[in-house]
Amino acid sequence: MFTNDLLKSKRILITGGGTGIGRAMAERFLQLGATVYICGRRREVVEKTAAELSASIGGTIEGFACDVRYPEDVEPLIEQLWAKGPLDVLVNNAAGNFLARTEELSAHAFEAVIGIVLKGTINMTLACGRRWLAAKNKGVVLNIATTYADTGSAYVVPSAVAKAGVVALMRSLAVEWGGRGIRFVAIAPGAIRTEGAFSRLLPTPALEKMLLDHNPLHRLGTLEEIANLGAFLISDQAGYINGEMVYMDGGEMLAGASTFSLMGRQMPDAAWEMMKPKKK
Ligand code: HXC
Ligand code: NAP
């Protein structure tokens, strides 16, 4: 679909780039000529991914341990990356989520998800944004949101409120910083099979079937599809797209908001017990 130099000489940081969608984007951006940095809480995961992608594709990719919830983790990483020159693209992809009845959630459960998704995105966006603005550099921020960020969703409420905040941040800064060279885009993906998402949100064939029955295309999205959409949106080819969230969900939202709202209302008590965290 793209020429192999689409992202040549772009320096890109992907949060949560060691697994799932973040890893797939890292792979695609590397193939398209970018220098890629990935971060996550687990150092061994990001380092292994970087080594594997470097061996299979070549190019430059490095993995860093960084917890996006904490500015004291984010600032040193961004400072270290900036020491070699400005980044061109930030991808806010790191997230946390689980399926649960809201009245059963502790304050800590809310904090855990909001910390990663919303505070993490704010921390990273400000750390890069301030540097871009101060030096009058151009930059692009791609946020991986969800289809229910605009509508809300039952049973994934911490994620819904956090992702809504991410989209509000994206749309606000698209206006505030757009004229100063910083472009904001987002993707609202439908379900794409990853270990992280499916183990927490769609752990049984019955839940997966409900989701597929509800989707007009009766299939999941693929890692290739989201990586290619991401590549286009961060590329110069998409230079006039600012403040926009692109739905990539097979038309799921048009068939009725949030599959989780539909699913959760049909789940028996025993299924909810199964979704609870295992005692540590
Ligand atoms: C209720 C839960 C819970 C669950 C955790 N908690 N899982 N409550 N139901 N299933 C509660 C815990 O009891 C605890 O509260 C609090 O949340 C924090 O849990 P910890 O395990 O201590 O937190 P932490 O180690 O920081 O882990 C964060 C996490 C975890 C979000 C809970 O799931 C994680 O690390 N996720 C990262 C990856 C991920 O989630 N990927 C999926 C993204 S998919 P107490 O009060 O007991 O201390 C996505 C969109 C999918 O976002 C859309 C698909 C279509
Ligand atoms: P995933 O593999 O679990 O990815 C989440 C990543 O975030 C992990 O690599 C995780 O690594 C990292 N992470 C979590 N907390 C972090 C923190 N505090 N600091 C830094 N990194 C952290 O799940 P995924 O499915 O690929 O999800 C990727 C993105 O797509 C998320 O934004 C998710 O909301 C979105 N999404 C996914 C789907 C889907 O169906 N898969 C649908 C809609 C939206 P560590 O645990 O090592 O930190």
Describe, in plain words, how this protein is organized in 3D.
This protein has 280 residues and is α/β, with parallel strands linked by helices. The chain has a single domain (11-273), classed as NAD(P)-binding Rossmann-like Domain (Rossmann fold, 3-Layer(aba) Sandwich). It has 10 helices and 7 strands. The protein has helices spanning 20-31, 43-57, 71-82, 107-135, 157-176, 195-201, 205-214, 223-234, 259-264, 269-275; strands at 11-15, 35-40, 61-65, 89-92, 139-144, 182-189, 244-248. Strands 3-2-1-4-5-6-7 form a 7-stranded parallel beta sheet, with helices on both faces. The longest helix is centred in the middle third of the chain and has 29 residues, at 107-135. The model has no long low-confidence stretch (mean pLDDT 95). Hexanoyl-coenzyme A binds at residues 95-98, 100, 105-106, 108-109, 112-113, 146, 159, 191, 196-197, 200-201, 275-277.
Q: What is the fold named in CATH at topology level?
A: Rossmann fold
Spans of at least 5 consecutive residues with low confidence: none
Number of domains: 1
Compute the number of strand runs.
7
Beta fraction of the residues? 5-15%
Give the C-level CATH assignment: Alpha Beta
User: Strands across the major sheet, in which order?
Assistant: 3-2-1-4-5-6-7
Q: Pairing-aware structural class of the strands and helices? A: alpha/beta
How large, in whole angstroms, is the Cα Rg?
A: 18 Å
Q: Roughly what percent helix?
A: 40-55%
H-E order: EHEHEHEHEHEHHHEHH
Provide the residue-averaged pLDDT. 95
Largest pleated sheet = 7 strands, parallel
Looking at the overall shape, the CATH architecture is 3-Layer(aba) Sandwich
> Separation of termini?
47 Å
The CATH superfamily appears as NAD(P)-binding Rossmann-like Domain
Bound chemical compounds: hexanoyl-coenzyme A, NADP nicotinamide-adenine-dinucleotide phosphate
